Amino acid sequence: MLFMTGTLMGLTPIVAHLLGGQRNTAIRPAVHQALWVALLLGAVAAVLLWSAVMPIFILMKVPPEVAKESAAYLSAVAFGMPGIALFQALRAFSDGMNHTRPALWISLVGLTVNIPANYLLIYGGDGLVDLLGTWIPSTLQQLPALGAFGCGIATALSMWTMAIAMAWYTRRGRTYKSVAIWQHLTPPQWSGIRELVVVGVPIGVAILLR
Fold this sequence. Notes:
Order of helices and strands: HHHHHHHHHH
Transmembrane segments: 34-59, 71-90, 102-123, 143-169
Keywords: Membrane, Transmembrane, Transmembrane helix, Transport
Pfam families: MatE (PF01554)
InterPro entries: MATE_fam, MATE_MdtK
Shape: globular
């Protein structure tokens, strides 16, 4: 995730450079290439979380019960990785447009989703009864407690919430009207992807190794 975030941060200077040069029409295809890269990185991260976690835990001699719970959590988080990658790409775009506040507010939106979803999915109906009492509907009281797996589902939900909220804001916000990134989707182009990789990968590696 740190590598993804750093790599996609490479979009910020690209957008800022185009904006400063008043080349607004070139911003949309640059953002689209970042979105393609984000989807790819998110998918790769998800596959790694599904396939590589248990072998690593075995090599590290993690206790079986801890490994089982951790793997369950990460397998659920995997579904959110494409979402958080898309959010980071759109955040980098917004930052490059000199509009940094949306990322803060939308992160707080994700937090407001994550906290109650965590409680509900980790502790289930019994947790709700302990917190709110027996007056809650019987349907909610019967919700299963999913533990670490539920925590992962809540995290994935918050990731996708942030991605959808950021997409909505960049579509509706006045700051982005001159760019209109959600019109005429640009297909993958090697030149644009290469520019992002050249700028972003060193940032991603630096953040990963910090």
